[in-house]
């Protein structure tokens, strides 16, 4: 009995000591970090958004992509249209900055609106995207400018984030750009990688014809 009491007393002392745990504790911060990197950020709905204000032709003035560390694009433009069943499609074009041939690239994205009580949240309708690919309208000013963010939650990797600053004109005032950029860090967007998209030298094939001209001149 004396031996039993001694063992029991020892267990009580050890278990009561600071830092002791019967189970391995994973710091709460690691869970928060994992969740922070894997899940899309919470975005407050834009209750005042009118979908008609988002439709039509846009210049992409700045862009961010969590998978890119250098500016890749120029002359990026997009046109938003809404179908009769309320799906939204953007047809977009762009050039790669370092393409000597200035080959025009194009693509399209289609979204559906999961909840018409929040028309500022769209989900990509294409089935080939891995996980859930969300698009959020962060802010807009009727027919002048808009700020949108894409976020994809993937099963086997960190989330993917991108953002586009849109304008109806090829340029946007400095103060407006600063105002819109300041909205992005709360969504873990690093402004050092929010790049300008220049809207000049946008003639298709100009680089290719320059190469042909130089080739011809070499043999004259």
TrEMBL record:
<protein>
    <submittedName>
        <fullName>Uncharacterized protein</fullName>
    </submittedName>
</protein>
<dbReference type="GO" id="GO:0000302">
    <property type="term" value="P:response to reactive oxygen species"/>
</dbReference>
<dbReference type="GO" id="GO:0005737">
    <property type="term" value="C:cytoplasm"/>
</dbReference>
<feature type="signal peptide">
    <location>
        <begin position="1"/>
        <end position="16"/>
    </location>
</feature>
<dbReference type="InterPro" id="IPR012674">
    <property type="entry name" value="Calycin"/>
</dbReference>
<keyword id="KW-0732">Signal</keyword>
<dbReference type="GO" id="GO:0006629">
    <property type="term" value="P:lipid metabolic process"/>
</dbReference>
